[in-house]
Amino acid sequence: MPDGSIEIITGRERRRRWSVTEKLRIVAESHEPGARVSGVAARHDICASLLHGWRRQVREGRLGSPGAPEFVPVHLASRPGDAPLTSDRCIPAPARETAAIEVVLPSGGRILIRPGAPLAALRAIISALRG
Fold it and tell me: Between residues 73 and 44, which one has the greater pLDDT?
């Protein structure tokens, strides 16, 4: 039952302004292994719902500068039966001006990512590699 007390707020409510860099840093922290959104939000004194909103904006590509390069972490894990790459299986890289990034898979397959590659295509490739 209410105790009958009333809180009177005078003046303007304090609203913090978060820079895009700060938002991205906090969102990245929430994606760390073992991190909980509620714990990260509490550490930064924000509501978990606000952090969830920022995470959704990042997923949808609405948070961050459009010209900034996007990097996707890649983790390779060997599977039983995969032979390790040896020097005789290495394929020489093409001329530097034709490929920005070359990924050599343990199976010997290669993925070339050239400058200007559509982000949607890169996401589809990485999604397929994740299985």
Answer: 44
